[in-house]
Amino acid sequence: DIKKSIEKADLHLRDGSTEAFNKLFCKKIPIIVLSAGIGDVVELILMHENLLTDNVTVVSNFLKLSTDNNGLSTIEGFKGEKLIHVFNKNEHAYIDTHQNDTHLSGRSNVILLGDSLGDANMDGGIQYDTVLRIGFLNANLLEHEDGY
Question: What catalytic activity is recorded (predicted)?
């Protein structure tokens, strides 16, 4: 069971994440978590940290499950038409899956946070008044330092 595994795991978000999420929630500022990982896991981690609030939208690859007569779930694949991966992880992935959302309309400023160079382009070339790009360099510091 994924939920039990997350509850037992020694997972930690980056320092300051909880405070940032809470401030953004209080100010009614939307957060989009765009992940090429498994969305079910991302949501469960945010739930475990009490951070999956009304202003948070997870755009990711969600599991398509079927349940048999004994209550056992089997993974059949992923929901949706397209998988999100490092080469299409941008705002178009959000637009494709959340066409009717209005909580971003009228927003002209974006903060992009990511841990790969490709994450710096998650805005997909859509024009905003201000885009602040922040990259986290986690490994191979000397090798990737110039790119960051």
Answer: a ribonucleoside 5'-phosphate + H2O = a ribonucleoside + phosphate
User: Please, what CATH class does the domain formed by 2-104 belong to?
Assistant: alpha beta
For 52-103, how does the pLDDT look when each residue is reduced to its tens digit (9 = 90+)? 999 998 888 999 999 888 888 889 999 988 888 877 766 556 556 555 566 6
Distances (CA, A) of 6 to 34, 46, 58, 138: 19, 10, 17, 22
**Residue 27 burial (10 A CB sphere; 0-12, 13-18, 19+):** exposed
What is the token pair recorded at 44? 């469960």
Beta bridge partners of 34: 59
